[in-house]
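Lab meeting minutes (informal)
Scribe: AK
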Amino acid sequence: MTVKGMHTSPLKADTLNPKVLTAQYAVRGEIVIRAGEIQEELAVGEKKPFSNILYCNIGNPQQLGQLPVTFFRQVLALCDYPPLLESPRVGELFPPDVVERARRYLNAIPGGTGAYSDSRGAGILRQEVAKGIERRDGYPADPDLIYMSDGASQSVHAVMRALIRDERDAVLVPIPQYPLYSATLALYGGTLLPYYLKEEHEWGLDLQELHDQTEKAKAEGKTVRALVVINPGNPTGQVLTQENQKDILKFCRDEGVVLAADEVYQDNIYSPNKKFVSFKKVMREMGLEDVALASMHSISKGFYGECGRRGGYTEFVGFDKDVLAQLYKLASINLCSNVNGQICTALMMQPPKEGEPSYLLYSKERSELLASLKRRAERLHKALSELQGVTCNPLEGALYAMPRIHLPPGAIQAAKEAGKAPDFFYCKQLLEETGIVTVPGSGFKQEEGTYHFRTTILVQEKETDQVIDRLKKFHDGFMEKYGRK
């Protein structure tokens, strides 16, 4: 009997799509939820051993104080409010190349930022992206093969949605992995086929591991549909060599699998001995025509940090025209990605050129941000490597460190008694005692018997020492407490 005035929802968690219940996303999991609660407790005056939360769990630069690129925001301001273009003071408020860019975009986008665009993205913006790819790689790009998206995450969803038919379809994913991949595979009913990066070789990719896992999957009646490569790596920060890339492309050709290249950190290179080279460039240099490559990029990373704009693209190379027609249909179901994100993506791929009025400021902002990120990467790596029982590979690229913690048996036993993974146990106590938010390695999957955590390098430079000091004090106390016999 239902009491009058009381209502019971007909929907319960156990009646939801089981694939939704299976999907997990550790980057915004239990520890981050607890961090939000602590932040609210601090706001009402509750006493803690620290005065603020330091979010080191996610690549969200502007949340942590990084300033946006001026050129981007100026063009977006004019595109969002076209009457400014007709103001007699527009030339005082904005550089002429900003005004020209906004006029050119708006003239080619009927209805401006408030209207739907072509399902793949506005034609002029896809042309801008294509020119940027051509300038980067030295090979032409076809705007009709470029699909704008609400960040690279939606590109991943689109690729997995198209590829996965049932649980017999498997996708090779690097471990440690970015949990977007395990989550999307869970949602679409596919199987994650892990290939383990070699921590002892600076998180290198072992080609034999790809072959072994593929043969194992075939023996189990599975079909390997795609290989995911994240370069530079997330969460591991390594940068692939071109020889490694060639081997990967040959593997995809020989096995007939799609290469899903997550290349969103291509501007974030810190090692003087490494550089980013796109898979498309390597593929063209090899003269390969029979590899299907989905190359993904985003405005959320690099030195732009425009995460909330949700802009990105996928370039589809080597795909059959009938497959492209189906991908177009999928894009059409979503109508289009947000137009502000599309504009920002075009600006990322076509920044001011030398000699243009905005170039000097853009170049200054770019070099200062990237230099600061490199300094932060080096300082954090040094500090982590000096902690008792911690090993950490050099941060060659991306925005993260993935140190390994050699936890004492006492900590592992205490975690077991608490019903938690040992690195979760460590990260939760780290949060409660220091306010530092990290992600346990168990959230990224990891080699059995090893424990890690992932931290970003994005806390502002002036606060980096604060993170290091809090972490060192906590870690020393943790190791002493649980290392006692």
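Next up, CB showed the second protein from the same session:
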Amino acid sequence: MGWSRQLKLLFSLSLVLLLLPINAGFVLANEKLLIPMGHSIGIKMDLSGVFVTNDVMLEKDVWLKAGDLIEKVDNVSIQKLEGFEKSVSNTHNLQKISMQILRDVEIVQIQSSSEAVKRLLPFLKDRTEGTGTLTYVDPEKGTYGALGHQIIDSAFNSPPSFTDGSIYLSKIGQIRKSMPGNPGYKISSIVKDEHILGSIKKNGVYGIFGTWNKAYKQVLAEPLEIMQPSTVKEGEAEIYTTVKGTEVESFSIQITNVEKDQFHFTLTDTKLLETTGGILQGMSGSPVIQNGKFAGAVTHMFVDEPEKGAALFLSTMRTGEQ
């Protein structure tokens, strides 16, 4: 993300979002006021087809590559994994199956036995999932922003091509603590699949953005003014995040360095450090508040010093929604 000072193997703190209710009392004339969130969220994105997750050899010298999109099986268009399964389930094991593959921008035709093609199933996906933290809700526009960075699918090492996506309230069940050289993470689960907090309309460099569904309960703060980067200073601040259940809590930090594109901070809250050992994967998107204003969102951690991290200015993150 072009940080001016190199972070040692910065881990994108994967998907975690939070919810909040929007009502007439939150509708403000000043669109510069945003509600800081901090909730843990589950993320589900429906991919634009059936993709191969690993390099797989079907037969001698016949390979599928990670990221290949299966467009057709025996001239039948494939949109979902269940469609692929249906196309190959009734074929004889020795029967040849033809597949049309989109590899980068090239169309590739592949033929292999039905037996070999059926073995592909564990290496195919039509959905990507993850966790993260909800950053803000815009009560006037009915939109949200989360994560502060782009979702990169680990199977493809690139942003996933998706047709639809949703965020859900997530409950933290366990914490694996961060240690120097070994980032920790949250173990979480979606509270209710049928309760969608919002839709995902954009997966951009500064986070995921979409429409808010007027969901959920109380938050830690009323809508706050967006802090301009020039007014963010070294000194005390706080982050809102979730480390147990669905409860959002405030924890103290110290902003240690303010740069052109980001600011660095150190966790100083002893309760948080005892619980997590430092920043966790999944905290990405946690709001940063300074002097009663909304300064930014946590985006990265220093792997060798997990109590230290970096944050994106909220004004920069907001440009990603446009």
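CB comment: Confidence is low (pLDDT under 50) at residues 1-30.
No objections, moving on.
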